[in-house]
Amino acid sequence: MSISTCPSRDRDDISVLDDGDRALIEATQAGLPLVADPWAAVGAAIGMSGEEVLARFQRLRLTGVVRRIAAVPNHYRLGYLANGMTVWDVDDQRIDELGRQLADWPGVSHCYRRPRRLPDWPYNLFVMLHGHHRDEVEAQSERLREWLGDACRDHRILYSSRILKKTGLRLATAKGASPCSE
Q: Is the pTM of this model over 0.70?
């Protein structure tokens, strides 16, 4: 599990963190433990209850310091060597409905809306697909295209060429260093 964070655009520091928040973030920088109750396990390591750990994470999320807590699989280690971000030009009136449904498809790890950048970039729905080989990704993409039907005007597959990072939240260690992580 990974923690993803970045201060909101109108706040240029993370001075809202108290010592308990910092201890919590430091204890989870390498991820959450893969146990039945990760909140209790983290809490035990830093002298907090599991309930306090969860409450702190919820507060940090609501204040915008933490954006999400999510599993971050390394698809390459799992044998999925073809990773394709499919980008779709879909009907704006249906994008929320379609996105929710596509997010539940097998092989989809990410599904989100992004603004178009016309005239060069008409795509507004991004769906990450994974396969052992490119032909698997292309077959998945074709099934999505058929399912989308008339709601889809165009699409492309952008293949990953390398892993950029697989880390969660890191506290800045030097003045001026960015605390942002994704």
A: no
Distance between CA atoms of 20 and 46, rounded to whole angstroms? Answer: 9
Say whether pLDDT at 116 is over 80.
Answer: yes
The predicted-structure confidence for 11-49, as pLDDT tens digits, reads as follows 444 567 899 999 999 999 888 898 999 999 999 999 999
Contacts made by residues 27-31, CB under 8 angstroms, sequence distance 24+: 28/3, 28/168, 28/169, 29/168, 29/169, 29/170, 29/171, 30/168, 31/1, 31/2, 31/3, 31/72, 31/168
Rounded CA separation 7/175 (Å): 15
Q: Identify each DSSP E strand in 6-71 by its residue range.
A: 66-70
* pLDDT tier at 125, thresholds 50, 70, 90: very high
Residues 85 and 93: their CA atoms lie apart, in Å, by 22
List the structure tokens of 15.
């001075």
Contacts of 3 (CB under 8 A, 6+ apart): 25, 28, 31, 32, 57, 66, 68, 69, 168, 169, 181
